[in-house]
Amino acid sequence: MAFVTTDDSSNPPAKTDQAGTPLVAFRGITKVYGEGMAAVRALDGIDLTVEPGEFVAIMGPSGSGKSTCLHLIGCLDTPTDGSYRFAGVEVGALRRNQRALLRREYLGFVFQGYNLLRRTSALENVEMPLVYRRVPRRERRRQAQDALAAVGLQGREHHTSAELSGGQQQRVAVARAIVTEPALLLADEPTGNLDSTTGREIMDLLTGLNDARGITVAMVTHEEAMAAYAGRIVRFLDGRIVADEKRVADPEHSTSRRPEGGGGPSA
Prior knowledge:
disordered N terminus, six-stranded mixed beta sheet
């Protein structure tokens, strides 16, 4: 999957087919914050590719560059140097409105803190990306209901965030991320605010979406148990990639890839 950008910010990029093209391709990516003696080199010339359909866990200690990497992939920040291609398109050559189009049309985001509108229903939260796409009300309502059903929240559509548990709120966040059928789902510590059992439920959900829908997932986590769900683990240290490990999923758990001893979901 690739796209051809347009100068009109009201129209989405047009899709074209480029078989064999990585979804994400970093070449010599560097990110420096500050200047002079206060400069901090968050990323130091990294090379990284993510292929369509992969589930990649990005790990490392605090300050290692893992979250900076995810923010650059998500066009939430720009690199200081290097090349970033998304589906074959040089992101550095895009205007600001074109990068916004890329985020809107091809990326979904799940954050540790859920980032839901507190006094708004689950259904209305999930509809928000479709509002920005100018999807007609009836159609966006249907798509939002389908997304909530996909994450197991039938019957909770009209509950506000205050009426949902932490795990349910994160499920709403996942539904909001997938309602646009993104090419890439970016998850930043998605289980960080959850207990271990609920965290496993969210990981089962993410791996199920990866397996069943082919959604590419890049996830930052500091938890080895959660990273074990991924098919690949990329480890950062001091702004550099120090390990890139591909894992073989257990064929008996191909739809969940739950690590051995992980137990089942609580509800």
